[in-house]
């Protein structure tokens, strides 16, 4: 397996993977052609040196997973750098094969390379299996997250 930066040509497969679960079906729009909003977002992410949209390829160069890694510079923690991992999704037929663990090992190493002092994530409470997976990787539910949908 190989992790690499996503290209615009990967977008349909990325959205397909993101839409392939109960929550993703409600928020993604998988149709041909893809809505232009996905391409606009890709351009913004791709131009930002603090963001990386990534894919995982298997030995046949098929995309089997995706995630986004963002680096947030802030003042507290002595001007620290925080890494945030989002939109971690593995193709349904490849779950349970270690792809998720590979993603997190890669993200942890990349975060250390950039001298981030922590890697954070949020997970929907409707995903108890994912939360258990993150806990098994060493993540701790240390804060209560809140959202305001606009």
Give a brief rundown of this model.
This protein has 150 residues and is an alpha+beta fold. It contains 6 helices and 5 strands; from the N terminus they run βαααββαβαβα.
Give your account of this protein's structure.
The chain has 150 residues and is α+β, with helices and mostly antiparallel strands. The protein has one domain (2-136): Aminopeptidase. Helix content is 36%, strand content 23%. The protein is built from 6 helices and 5 strands. The chain has helices spanning 11-18, 22-27, 36-47, 76-79, 99-113, 128-136, and strands spanning 2-5, 51-57, 63-73, 81-90, 118-120. The chain has a 5-stranded mixed sheet with strand order 1-2-3-4-5, sandwiched between helices. Helix 5 links the parallel strand 4 (81-90) and strand 5 (118-120). The longest helix is centred in the C-terminal third of the chain and has 15 residues, at 99-113. The mean pLDDT is 94.
Q: Give the end-to-end Cα distance, rounded to a whole number of Å.
A: 38 Å
Looking at the overall shape, the CATH architecture is: 3-Layer(aba) Sandwich
| The CATH class | Alpha Beta
β-strand number? 5
Q: Structural class of the helices, strands and pairings? A: alpha+beta
Notable characteristics:
single chain; about 150 residues; alpha+beta; Aminopeptidase; five-stranded mixed beta sheet
